[in-house]
Amino acid sequence: MPLRIVRNDITKMKVDAIVNAANKTLLGGGGVDGAIHKAAGMRLLAECMTLGGCDTGKAKITKGYKLPCRYVIHTVGPVYVDGTHGEKELLESCYRESLMLAKENACESVAFPLISSGVYGYPKDQALKVAIDVISDFLLKNDMTVYLVVFDRAAFNIGEKLFSDIAEYIDDKYVSDHIDSRVERMRRAEGNRTFARPLAAKCEECCAAPFGDDLDAILSEIDESFSQMLLRKIDEKGMTDAECYKKANIDRKLFSKIRSDVNYKPSKPTAIAFAISLELTLSETAELLKKAGFALSHSNKFDIIIEYFISRGNYNVFEINEALFAFDQCLLGA
Ligand code: APR
């Protein structure tokens, strides 16, 4: 996935470059700046002293020294006042300048902290949105793997209303693990017997034709595959392949596999990511998932949250990820 949101200590990230949320002197400080200098060793400071500082919104590059990365890209985020002093534009510039510097130095992977969201006071959820928007925009035009290293859960400050709505929706839909009544067990047992029925038997409920000697006829009407439906939907939506897989946060190689193998079976999160990217309705999503052998399940919080957003026509990956994170689920594109 080109953009991954991970919870980690950025000094542990094994990538080509990590980004430091520095101050204008570039001579170290607290927070992530302090952690990076501590892990890199004194030679990082020595190189920083030759750079002559850095303006807010700009970025400069050094070696990584003792860190498990080749480079450290130092950028200076804005100090947040009240959002009316150009803070957003300066923060966007930090990500953009750092990404360009990474690209100029042939980096294939970069890890960012949430710049300005600590000492500099940028509200974490707004800082996260700026980060995701600028990085996603860059990844629409460039091939790179970018990690957003979220150090603490507070970074996903989900709106109270949204949170309580989703919590209620989950309660309504969620089949908790302990509901295993006798009736439930019998229903499941009955289902197994149905499937165990010999293939040659006549199946009154779901089709008139006996299975036995018409199997060829039935197989000849085999349904459209996942790959075929995906490509058809991309065309119907007037999207290009690249727009679709990048918006789904799927890398080009995986998309090429899906496109070239008509019988390719993706993972469930991948299938769901495409449904979100194509902004499919709930029934279209169910149909696409079914082609891959999946269904949205009411015994799975991840699925219920996805269903919540799709049923409300909200395909904003940022908001969906906020909700998934708040409920300890894996994120789309993570
Ligand atoms: N790994 C990943 N993220 C981290 C780490 C770490 N080891 N340590 C802190 N963070 C997170 C914080 O939780 C915060 O969300 O990095 C984000 C940025 O916080 P700060 O490091 O305080 O950076 P910033 O808000 O941009 O303030 C920069 O702080 O440390 C000084 O010298 C620095 O003056 C500069 C100012």
Q: What descriptors fit this protein?
A:
binds adenosine-5-diphosphoribose, 14 helices, 47% helix, 6 strands, alpha/beta, 334 residues
What is the typical, i.e. mean, pLDDT? 84
Assembly state = single chain
Query: Nearest-angstrom radius of gyration?
Result: 25 Å
Strand content: 5-15%
Counting DSSP E segments of at least 2 residues, the number of strands comes to 6
* Amount of helix: 40-55%
Shape: elongated
Low-confidence stretches: 176-184, 192-211
Along the chain, the helix and strand elements come as: EEHHEEHEHEHHHHHHHHHH
What does this structure look like?
This protein has 334 residues and is an alpha/beta fold. It has a 6-stranded mixed β-sheet with strand order 1-6-5-2-4-3, sandwiched between helices. A hairpin with a 7-residue loop joins strand 3 and strand 4 (71-76). Helix 5 crosses helix 13 and helix 11 (268-277) runs antiparallel to helix 12 (282-291). The protein has helices at residues 31-40, 42-48, 87-104, 124-141, 160-173, 182-196, 215-220, 226-236, 241-247, 252-260, 268-277, 282-291, 301-311, 317-326; strands at residues 3-6, 17-22, 59-63, 71-76, 109-112, 145-149. The structure holds adenosine-5-diphosphoribose.
Short description:
The chain has 334 residues and is α/β, with parallel strands linked by helices.
Write the layout of secondary structure elements.
Blueprint: E1 3-6, E2 17-22, H1 31-40, H2 42-48, E3 59-63, E4 71-76, H3 87-104, E5 109-112, H4 124-141, E6 145-149, H5 160-173, H6 182-196, H7 215-220, H8 226-236, H9 241-247, H10 252-260, H11 268-277, H12 282-291, H13 301-311, H14 317-326
Parallel strand pairs: 1-6, 2-4, 2-5, 5-6
Antiparallel strand pairs: 3-4
The protein binds adenosine-5-diphosphoribose (APR).
Adenosine-5-diphosphoribose (APR) binds next to β2 and α1.
